[in-house]
Protein: tRNA-dihydrouridine(20/20a) synthase
Amino acid sequence: MSITPFNRQFSVAPMLDWTDRHCRYFLRQLSQHTLLYTEMVTTGALIFGKGDYLAFNEAEHPVALQLGGSDAADMARCAVMAQERGYDEVNINVGCPSDRVKNGSFGACLMAQPEMVAASVKAMQQDVDIPVTVKCRIGIDDMDEYEDFSRFIDIVAEAGCDTFIVHARKAWLKGLSPKENREVPPLNYPRVHQLKQAYPGLNISINGGIKTLEQTREQLQQVDGVMMGREIYANPYLLSQVDAAIFGDAHKIPSRSDIVHIMQRYIEQQDEPYFKPWHVARHMLGLFQNQVGGRIWRRYLSQHGTGKNPDPNLLMNALAQVEQAQQEAAEYRASQVG
Structure:
């Protein structure tokens, strides 16, 4: 199969319970070039589950499947499934610190078993043509020296992986919750920079604590790519600047109003029996972040998007409220000038 090349300079992190297909479709309206990732999907869910965990919209490209697992044969089988469905990449989760992940022998605990990760990489690459990449931490528990980190990279890279996305924090698998593991262990960007200097032939992206495009550009002087997660989710319109600022593509930027109209049409096209407008709207709560009417937008979506009888014109009605607030604010400013 032919592989369409894509640029890894900027990506949105896989986030469990958040970066579902509705979220990814929404984010794609804001950036044409950003690499998007699915939520982590386990091999067990893909092989034995009854749901369609691989569904996505063709508009989402480039899009990568993040896969959780440790059995090489199962990982290869799921990579084939991903390629057949049209995914652009399969990413192995070696960074999630939750107990559920740890008990399943995948996620961050696999940093202590690089040979197991290497076996999965090798088996997957034998069966698919799309890239197989790894997302990891800089260390876990007491295995947090640079030598431990570089040993993991050595072994996995030797198996054929040439792309690593590194969350620049270690993970404490004993004593910290997943939320605490995103915040408590200190960020160590120099360690990721050191890795890139030591392995110039590898493609290294950095993740963790990066909140602005200025910080992104600074990091791109040291590494190949930046992955941003929760900041994009909280303030998604930031993504509209990425194509010009990072990829050098200064196409017309859609307004927030444009995005609302597109997503309202998207909602109207959904025909699943259990679909509700809130499944889309919940990802859009931050669209008017730091704008007049932003609080009104969030409140309207939350109050009218849930419950037994959600508003079918949810987004348009919320937008009308925002535009009224913005008009009143503009009229007030004009009266003060006069």
Q: What stands out?
A: The first helix runs from residue 21 to 28. DSSP finds 15 helices and eight strands in the chain. The domain at 256-337 is CATH 1.20.120.1460 (Four Helix Bundle (Hemerythrin (Met), subunit A)). The chain has two domains: 10-245, 256-337.
